[in-house]
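Dear Dr. H.,

I hope your travels went smoothly. While you were away I took the liberty of generating a structure for the chain from your last submission, since the lab meeting agenda had it listed for discussion. I wanted you to have the full record in hand beforehand rather than looking at slides cold. The sequence, exactly as received, is reproduced here:
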Amino acid sequence: MASPGQSEFKPRDAGSDDAAVVGAMIYALLVELGETKADLERYTEIANDLLGKREGFVCRLVETPTVAGPIGLITFSGARSHFAFGTYGDIQELYVTPEWRSSGVGRLLLDDARDVARQRGWTRLQVNAPDPKRFARNYQFYIKAGFEPIGPLLRQIF
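The corresponding predicted structure, in token form, is as follows:
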């Protein structure tokens, strides 16, 4: 697909009325990452809840005049710690629709998140990048954007 210049991409805040499209994009992202229990209805409910409350949660969508609806999104929220000298941004999801990858949308979303973080006085952004062996291209995308490895992330689900 011929992509417009990056100036034609328009980032904006997602609102409650965007819950269905945000849920669908999160669903597509997680299916692509191999999530076997992906649940579109549940992701839409969560999007509606998060977009309605805001409480430090940010969801930015990118649109272009040539396509109806968003072509990318990034979600992130503020967290606090001593190691970051205060509040920092934690990127949860970044998704660009397949036909718009390698067109600058992902980089625009990261740059936009950086701008929002700076406006809020946050000291850094960090991301739980996908497995560098399985998703080398995605991992390198973050490295090229200036992120640096800081070690493995562990989780416990309950």
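Two observations you may find useful: The helical segments are 19-32, 40-53, 105-119, 136-144. Strands lie at 10-13, 57-63, 72-81, 86-96, 125-127.

With kind regards,
E. W.
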